[in-house]
Amino acid sequence: MVVEAKDGGGLVSHSRVIIEVIDENDNAPEITFRSLHNLVPENSAPGTMVALITVQDRDSGENGEVVCTIQEKLPFKLISSSGKYYKLVTASTLDRETVPEYNITVTATDRKS
Fold it and tell me: Which of 25, 29, 54, 61 could cross-link 108 (Cys pair, CB 3.0–4.6 Å)?
C-alpha cells in the first residue's frame, strides 16, 4: 500500500506501508494412520511397529508445530521418526492372558495450544 501526503502548496510525498498478516492458531492438528496392525502377537519383540502415523497442522510457525503423545503406563511408545511422522511401537513384551487388548489414544497438540 502506498500513502500519499499533500500540502496546500502542491508538495507531495509518498510512503510505502507494508502490512504483514500473522498466523492465528485457528487450525487443529490432524492425525492420519498410514499403517496400522490391529493384531500384534504377544511374543513380539520390543520395538515392533504397530502403527505409522502422520500429523500436520495447516497453521504456520510455532502454531503449526505438532507433538504427539499417548497415555502413560502402557507397553507402547511413540517415536518421532521425522518432522511429521511417528511410529507406535511396543515398549515391552505383551501378555495376552493378562491384557488381551489395549485402547490407545494418540493426542496431537500444537505448540501454541
Answer: 29
What's the predicted TM-score (pTM) here?
0.78
With DSSP H G I counted as helix, E B as strand and the rest as coil, what are the percentages for the chain, rounded to 5? 5, 40, 55
Mean pLDDT by 10-residue block, N- to C-terminus, for the chain (113 residues)? 87 92 90 92 95 94 91 95 91 95 94 67
Rounded to whole angstroms, the Cα distance separating 78 from 87 reads 6
Q: How far apart are CA 50 and CA 110, in angstroms?
A: 24
Q: Report the SS3 class of residue 6.
A: strand
Q: How many CA atoms lie within 13 A of 41 on its CB side?
A: 4
